[in-house]
Amino acid sequence: MKKSLTSVCVASVLLISTVVSADQGKGLNVVLTSADRQAQMMAMVLSMQTLKKHKKELNMVICGAAGDLVLKDTKTDTMKPADKSPTMLLNAVIKSGGKVEVCPLYLPNVGKTAEDLIEGITVAKPPIVAGRLLDTDYNNLTY
Predict the structure, then answer these.
(1) Per DSSP, what are the bridge partners of residue 76?
(2) Whole-number Å distance between alpha carbons of 63 and 109
(3) 27 and which of 4, 41, 56, 109 could share a cystine (Cβ 3.0–4.6 Å)?
């Protein structure tokens, strides 16, 4: 009786996790504002996993203290264990089909223009970003 109950519980957990993983939605919205390079790196790692491993859509908005990542002249140091940097992974996210935008407040407040952006990054439109964040088919992650 005890083994049967345990078996039923294990089977239920496996079934529930299969159903949950099958219904992961359309993708992930990432809002990155942290100046912390480790936080930036983790945002990029999870974004790459979303695109590559889970084959889901990725929308990223970068603003505030993280804003320097969007500038083509920004270089960041590599980190262990991947020996990659946040800027390296940001470029990989773009090349892998991730949509990356900078908030519209960033460029004019640091004396930069759209010409200073990494190729593939555009200026976000707040109504569209708000719509994505409210879309229940996407999970939201903020760093």
Answers:
(1) none
(2) 11
(3) 56
Which residue blocks in the chain are alpha helix, DSSP H? 2-22, 37-52, 86-95, 106-109, 126-134
58 and 51 Cβ atoms separated by less than 8 Å: yes
Residue whose token pair is 């990725």 = 58
38-59 pLDDT, tens per residue?
Answer: 999 999 999 999 999 999 999 9
Closest CA to 43 of 26, 18, 25, 63: 63
Question: The tokens 């005890």 sit on which residue?
Answer: 2
Q: Are 43 and 65 in contact (CB under 8 A)?
A: no
The answer to whether 87 and 74 are in contact (CB under 8 A) is yes
What's the fold here for domain 25-142? Answer: Hypothetical Protein Ychn; Chain: A, (3.40.1260)
Token pair listed for 8 = 């039923």
pLDDT tens string 49-105: 999 999 999 999 999 999 999 999 999 999 999 999 999 999 999 999 999 999 999
pLDDT at 2 over 80: no
Tokens representing 39 are: 């936080």
Neighbours of 54 (CB within 10 A): 13
For residue 91, which amino acid is it? N
